[in-house]
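Supplementary Note 3. Input sequence used for the single-chain structure prediction.
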Amino acid sequence: MEDTEMVHEEVQGRFTHYKPTSLALDKVALLRRAASELAYHIVEYVPAGRERSLSLTNLEETVFWANKAITRYGQDAA
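The predicted structure, written as discrete structure tokens, is reproduced below.
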């Protein structure tokens, strides 16, 4: 069984609001711009259908998790 304190810390870490710094906001904006550019290329070059839809959904999810990591762990890191 897991240590109760470790479980508590994990749960708190997952559901705590992390206020991003201005540097983090800059990184988030950069990632969003890059992802938007890729999304436009996907729409332009990939035939409409399930695969294109999944590509866009997974790109959106990728940006979400990257942004969460920036604000949670490495706002001021490289």
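The longest helix spans residues 22-45. DSSP finds three helices and no strands in the chain.
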